[in-house]
Amino acid sequence: MKKYSRPVLALLIIGATLAAFIYYLAHHPNTTARLRDLPPGTLALLLVLYGCTFLTLSVISWASLHLYSKPIKLQENVLFNAYSSLINFFGPGQSGPVFRGAYLKKRHNLGLKQYVFATLVYYGFYAVFSACLMFAGARPWWQTALVMLAAGIVSTLVIRWYKKGAGIDGRMHLRLNAIFWIGLITAIQVLLMTIIYGLELHSVVAHASIGQVMSYTGVANLALFVALTPGAIGIREGFLVFSQNLHHINSGVIVAANVIDRAVYLVLLGILFVLILSLHAKDKLQVTDSK
To answer: How large is the angle between the packed helices 141-166 and 112-136, nearest 10 degrees?
Structure first.
């Protein structure tokens, strides 16, 4: 019974979110008209920016393997991330990380403990930067600094605890240049998401301050850590609605901005799908063996 509880819960959340979207747009024709009147240039720019975030994932994958002195070719890295992005969105229970771990173990002899450790390093940076954004736009600087410090300490303790429990040899695996690259590219990724959310918010509302956009981005990013649904559908929206005292963006704007965001991201996934088919990624990556 427990085996099916999470997929069922995810489907219920997605269904409720879609129903809420449809209900809101049906009862707010001004929002629908605003979405129809979006300039094509804005949508194209959002698509380019999302493409850049995909490239940051590829660089993070390269740096994660570099942490263990394991090379990966450029084409394989791009196709690998494209395939895992599709699986992560459309697969059951966000199964992208599971596929990534299985693939890297099969093709690059990366142990599960090593993969989890590298992922925790990336998540640690992501959590610290997102927590900083969440409070930077809504709280005094010293409170933001304390939150960032606390997030950094917690992330470091979790990573050290896992490293010790997994028996990972620090002399071999703590390559500072690789960790530097993971941190730098994660910062760029978070910056890109801030720009993306800022564009989406300004597309549906005339006024959204930099502080509001920063807090909005931080909350949206942190929602991914508890995502039960593809792309955190419903989860992210819920986080944003319940954290309105931080970013002060009303629910109508949240709904409209997320409709734009989901649509653009689905277009990106469609492009990745075409890329995978055209380059025969399934055969090149030997996906059947990885499964």
So the answer is: 170
DSSP3 helix / strand / coil % (the chain, rounded to 5)? 85, 0, 15
Is residue 291 scored above 60 in pLDDT?
no
Among residues of the chain, what percentage have pLDDT more than 70?
73
Rounded CA separation 110/262 (Å): 33
**Which one-letter DSSP state was computed for residue 99?**
H
SS3 of residue 223 by DSSP: helix
> Quick check: 137 and 212 in contact, CB under 8 A?
yes
Q: What single letter denotes the amino acid at residue 32? A: T
Quote the CA–CA distance of 30 and 205 in Å, as a whole number.
11
How many Å apart are CA 58 and CA 79, to the nearest integer?
9
| Integer CA distances (angstroms), 232 to 19, 226, 229, in order | 16, 8, 5
Those residues whose C-beta lies under 8 Å from the C-beta of residue 58, and which sit 6 or more positions away, are 77, 78, 81
Q: Round to whole Å and give the CA distance between 77 and 59.
A: 8
Q: What is the mean pLDDT of residues 182-189?
A: 94
Residue 171 pLDDT level (bands cut at 50, 70, 90):
very low
**DSSP per-residue codes, 34-81:** HHHT--HHHHHHHHHHHHHHHHHHHHHHHHHHHTTT----HHHHHHHH
CA distances from 99 to 41, 69, 109, 179, 207 (A): 35, 21, 14, 23, 41
C-beta neighbour count of 250 within 10 angstroms: 11
Q: Are 241 and 252 in contact (CB under 8 A)?
A: no
Residue partners of 77: CB distance under 8 A and separation at least 6:
58, 61, 62
pLDDT, one tens digit per residue, over 239-272 is 898 888 888 898 888 888 888 898 899 899 999 9
Ramachandran class of 186: left when φ > 0, alpha when ψ lies in -120 to 50, beta otherwise: alpha
